[in-house]
Design a protein that fits this description.
The chain is mainly alpha-helical. It contains 16 helices and four strands. Strand 3 and strand 4 form a beta hairpin.
């Protein structure tokens, strides 16, 4: 490195494309983008969160990391400092956010803060990833900062902790958990956005794939294969029946991040898209155009994305949704066939549940 984001020393250590003035809209997932555009356009939104900042433990978090973690800089974790400045230079983020390394064997990274974002990476992550994989992760976190995700991530952390504290009050955490669930759904989409930002910074799809595989299977690359890993994502999406579709939803609800195989498949699909190639060719939305962004256009893009997802999904539940939307004739029969697929003879008429293949039967689902 020899050029900093705002000066004349520290340019990226190898030849990478830079994206002057790039808007986060260029890489944001459609569902993430529509939510953010609406929030940014909401009158008084900034004032509300400025008020909330007095209730949130942001100062406490900053003091905690300052006092009990290692701040990245020229004299501490200098290689991470170089990567951070590279990422800010490439995405044209004028102010480099402070970054800390926190002692924790669990591989993790986050970008939090209301007034100014800070980035935290754990020692487990630093020890797990090589330089190019780490570069993609730091680009991922800088993407969060550029998109303004840190604000909502901080609120999510606060509300999650609050819900735990008031769980003993009857119905005390119902409303809070409803907000937390909605925020988690948004945040999972924001993670897909940040993965794209990480690819724009690292500009090495193989490194991004390796990093995601390591997050799933540890530092055993010689035992793993990218194609086989991506095949898992396809099997996860298309396998099973409606019961499995429901279990997938239930498994996902408490998580802040999408499943790792799904992230890898989504990132590979985006890397092969025309949208990614246009950005790499220098054709992307600029930050100075953000104020003119249409909320309705963003919602249309989001709706179109979800419609396309339903149309192309291999998940059994999404197949049923397509049948409903298409006005399938024998919907009841289709539902019954899908639910009991692989479970032996399906119930025939009202007495089916009392026979050998009803709820008390011994036949196991296919593949179990």
């Amino acid at each position: 490195m020899t050029e900093s984001p705002g000066g004349s020393a520290n340019v990226p250590s190898r030849d990478r494309r830079r994206f002057p003035g790039i808007s986060s809209r260029s890489y944001e997932h459609p569902a993430d983008r529509s939510a953010l555009v609406a929030l940014r356009k909401l009158s008084g939104f900034d004032t509300v969160f400025k008020t909330l900042s007095g209730l949130l433990p942001e100062r406490s978090l900053r003091l905690l990391f300052l006092s009990d973690s290692v701040r990245v800089g020229e004299q501490q974790f200098a290689h991470l400092n170089d990567m951070l400045r590279d990422a800010c230079y490439i995405l044209d983020l004028e102010k480099v956010p402070p970054m800390y390394v926190n002692q924790d064997p669990q591989p993790n990274a986050m970008c939090i803060g209301l007034d100014e974002p800070i980035i935290v990476v754990t020692t487990g992550l630093v020890e797990l990833l090589d330089e190019e994989e780490m570069r993609a992760v730091i680009g991922h976190e800088v993407g969060h900062a550029l998109s303004g995700h840190a604000v909502y991530r901080t609120i999510l952390l606060f509300l999650t902790n609050l819900a735990m504290k008031v769980a003993w009050i009857p119905l005390g955490n119902v409303a809070i958990m409803a907000i937390v669930t909605a925020l988690r759904e948004w945040f999972r989409k924001s993670e897909l956005s940040a993965d794209r930002a990480g690819l724009l910074v690292g500009q090495d799809l193989k490194a991004s794939m390796r990093g995601l595989m390591k997050l799933a299977g540890g530092n055993h690359l010689h035992e793993m294969n990218v194609d086989a890993f991506l095949k898992q994502a396809d099997e996860y999406e298309s396998g099973g029946d409606l019961r499995d579709s429901v279990l997938k939803i239930l498994n996902l609800l408490p998580r802040s991040h999408p499943f790792t195989t799904v992230r890898a498949a989504e990132l590979k699909k985006w890397a092969e898209s025309r949208d990614y190639q246009r950005i790499m060719d220098g054709h992307y939305p600029r930050r100075d155009e953000d104020k003119d962004t249409s909320v309705s256009d963003s919602f249309r893009d989001s709706a179109a994305h979800y419609a396309d997802s339903v149309r192309n999904s291999k998940d059994p539940l999404m197949g049923l949704v397509r049948d409903i939307a298409g006005g399938a004739g024998d919907l009841g029969g289709k539902l019954r066939d899908t639910v009991f697929r692989g479970g032996g003879t399906r119930p025939d008429g009202p007495g089916g549940a009392n026979g050998s293949n009803g709820t008390g039967g011994t036949d196991r689902p296919e593949g179990s």
